[in-house]
TrEMBL record:
Pfam families: ABC_tran. It comes from the Bacteria. The keyword Transport applies. InterPro entries: AAA+_ATPase, ABC_transporter-like_ATP-bd, ABC_transporter-like_CS, ABC_transpr_TagH-like, Bact_Polysacc_Export_ATP-bd, P-loop_NTPase. Keywords: ATP-binding, Nucleotide-binding, Transport. This is ABC transporter ATP-binding protein. It comes from Streptomyces poonensis. GO terms for cellular component: membrane. Residues 1-23 are annotated as: Disordered. Residues 56-278 form the ABC transporter domain. One of its GO terms (molecular function) is ATP hydrolysis activity. Belongs to the ABC transporter superfamily. The keyword Nucleotide-binding applies.
Amino acid sequence: MADTITRPAEGPRSTHGTDTAERVPTVIADRVDIVYRVNGTGAGRGTATAALNRILRRKKTEKAAGVRRVHAVRNVSFTAYRGEAIGLIGTNGSGKSTLLKAVAGLLPVENGRIYTDGQPSLLGVNAALMSDLTGERNVFLGGLAMGMSRDQVRERYQEIVDFSGINEKGDFITLPMRTYSSGMAARLRFSIAAAKDHDVLLVDEALATGDRSFQKRSEARIRELRKHAGTVFLVSHNNKSIRDTCDRVLWLERGELRMDGPTADVLKEYEKFTGGKK
Ligand SMILES: Nc1ncnc2c1ncn2[C@@H]1O[C@H](COP(=O)(O)OP(=O)(O)OP(=O)(O)O)[C@@H](O)[C@H]1O
């Protein structure tokens, strides 16, 4: 679980982002390791006997009990400051989503610590909305889940629906979310999350799912959120989105932080690594 930063006044200095006299750290990751444990990978996996064995012989080593460890994030350290938009890049399976979940406090760390200023909000493509409820009900559900009051959601409702563009092609907002395309659902999720000014907003790939005009609106909104003193993390495989939105980039590869620096510098190296611009 992430800890809360209690001494924001004088944070460690970094060479990245806007260089103002008083830089306030919002997220500090200090030598973070994250390990998944996957059960049932030994012989007889999935059988009732294997399950019973696991319960009875708890003290056995993880390996003997058929537990596989996946070391997803290795010794990662960084400090994020208020007003920064930070891109997280890396090839598939490099640990980006895992790191984001840990910053949100949704995954425990194996070693090291993560300190955060306030409660970060994770906006994932899988953010928990209810597919059987209408878009309208989900706007309320999502708003309440983010800590907004019913009145606050009511006040922002039209803005959220307009931003999402869900109703551009008909009255879709009153239909259950299961009838939405994956792009439409992602747009609504982003619009709900973006309605609130977050201290730390974590965005996982949401921009990649919308069409170009929605991407542009989202990028503008991210810039606005930054002005309101928040910190935005954006996981994306779309280097252009990263370039247009972020001033700093963390590049993860095989769970390790390979580079942390200004967007142009990191993307240049990353594009060399992956073999071309995207
Ligand atoms: N629930 C899980 N249980 C076990 N291993 C997992 C789990 N989720 C992710 N992993 C593993 O952790 C590593 C990092 O995965 P992660 O999803 O964080 O990568 P990513 O950089 O976000 O990838 P992508 O770009 O493909 O979305 C991978 O090796 C993956 O197989």
